[in-house]
Amino acid sequence: MTASRPATPAQxxxxxxxxxxDALATALxxxxxxxxxxxxxxxxxxxSRYALVHLGLCSxxxxxxxxx
Length: 68
Description:
Blueprint: H1 9-30, E1 39-41, E2 52-54, H2 60-65
Antiparallel strand pairs: 1-2
């Protein structure tokens, strides 16, 4: 079964950001890096002109631990 194409431009932009987030997470995992949080954010609630991959916030100890 194939996934249907998102109907609106905003939905397509969110789908694009989700795909980018997933690809980035896969690449980081292969490199041995794990971020504490990764999600998708849109700057406007009504209609998303674009979506952002939010890489989350982490403490300094967590950031240093991810380098190991």
